[in-house]
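hi! just following up on the protien thing from before. the input was this:
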Amino acid sequence: MTIHAPSRETFEARLRQIGDARYHDKHPFHQLLHSGGCTPDQVRAWVINRYYYQTRIPMKDAAFMSRVTDPNLRRIWRSRIEDHDGTEPGTGGIARWLKLAEGVGLDPDYVASEVGILPATRFAVDAYVRFVRDEPLLPAVASSLTELFAPKIHSERIAGLFEHYDFANAETMSYFQNRLKEAPKDVAFGLKWVLDHAVTQADQDAAARALTFKTEVLWAQLDALYSAYVEPGRIPPGGWQPGEGLL
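and the predicted 3d structure came back as:
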C-alpha cells in the first residue's frame, strides 16, 4: 500500500505550528527586552551575542551555496549574503547591527572582535552553520523557515525599543526596519521551495525536524543570555563582563 504524504496545506500548517509553539518570541528574555525591563548591560549583552549570530548567517548561506548545483537556486540564494554583508563596506545587516552596538554604548570594534561571546552562543550558532553545511538541501533550506515568524518579532521589537529605550532611533533600529523589507522575499521563496520538494512523508518529517532544530538554536542563545545576565546571573569564563568594550 502506498502511503501518501499529507497535502501542502497540511504540511504548511504543521510548519507554522512549530513556530507558534517554539519560536523565541516567547522566551522570557525577549519579553523582558521588548517591555523595557532590561538594564543597559543586559541590552549590551544581547547585542554582543546576537552579533555572532548575525555574522554567521552569510557564512552558513555561503556554505549552503557551495553545495548547490542549480544556478537558478544559487542566483536567488545569494541575495541573502548581500543582505547581511552588503554590496560594499559599511552596508548590509552586519554594518547596521554595529550601529545598534554603538547606540547602546559599545565600541563597534570590540563587538566585531567577537570577544566576550558566551560559550553557549558559540556552540549553538556554530551547530547551525554545520547543520546547513552538512545536511541534505531540503532540511538545510527548511531550517531557514524561522523567517516565517520573524516579521512579527521585528515589529514587536521596533515598537518596544522605541517606546522604552533612549538609544532607539532611525539609525540604531535600521537593522530591524530593513529586515521587514528584506525577509518577505526570502520567506516566500524558502517556503515554496520546501513545499515543492517535500514530496514524501519522510521529506516532510525531515523538514519539520530541521525547523524545530533552528528554533532550538535561537532559544538556546536566549537561555544563555538569561542565565548569564538576568537570573541567576552567572557569567561563564570568557563571557562579556559589564564595563568591558564601552565607548
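The two ends are 68 Å apart (CA to CA).
Residues 8-229 form a domain with the Heme Oxygenase; Chain A fold (CATH 1.20.910.10).
cheers
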